[in-house]
Structure prediction request, 324 residues.
Amino acid sequence: MSTQADGSRRPRVVSLLPSATEHVAALGYQDALVGISHECDFPMGLSGLPILTSSKVLSKGTSLAIDQDVRRVLREALGVYDLDTQRLEQLEPDVIVTQDLCDVCAVSLKDVEAAAVNLLGDHVQVVNLHPMCLEDIWTDMASVARALGAQTELASALEERRGRIAAIAERAQAATHRPRTLTIEWLDPIMLGGLWMPELIELGGGTPMVTVPGEKAPTWTDADLARLDPAPDVVLVKPCGFDLERTRQEAAAFAQRIGRFDWPAVHNDRVFVADGNAYFNRPGPRIVESLEILASCMQPELFAAEALAHRDAVVRLSQWAPMR
Prediction:
């Protein structure tokens, strides 16, 4: 049994989404985790923990096939994920961390709350995360910290991350040009990055396009994109839930599609693909690394060190397939 510095028992924690698991670990409580979701893959050391969720989405095919399957599940009034309530009861957690921001990101809050009340009783604390903008990510970390009793750890974790963000923003002030930047978070249909992405673009030295902070991802047609005026100087593609290798599988088709647009980003080879599973779409501590990756794409002269540090997390689309 893990104990606190004062000798009290550390809480038993179940995390039902990857960003929550990263919050718990960043606060120094990874050893308090007793169960995780099937998508929790960071930091190292999670293997062997009980997995409490599974997906109802059957398709392992293209982005379009996955999207259609998700919509089918939602039309049938089903949650996208199943929760292993029997295993959850056996684990006897003190804290369960989940979210209600996105129906396709984690087990529904309603299902989690029902399981907590019916199986575990009133002593279980359900922490619900709902990040809509950058500051909300740190508010969510604070919510997790309160449930864990990790206020001291929270202060140092936030100071370090806020400091890195401020340093990026300060260096970006030296930019002589702030490129118009568009982010794409799903390939087919094309969905544009919203929520905290416009803020990251501003902080990293760019000018956000289409969406504003806190706006959920809109779906755009090819005709919508072709009409963009002014057109983007930089495009960052970071499909939700896809790492680079998974995105590579659709790179050729997507390159042909985006290559038809008369955009400076296409002409100047400034269409980038990043690991959307680990970064950007995961509103946890590594949103700072996401900002560093984005800044290196928009302002390479100012952020050469960041480009080198994250060279395994981002590539130019043209490295995989010709765009024209």
Observations:
- The longest strand covers residues 180-187.
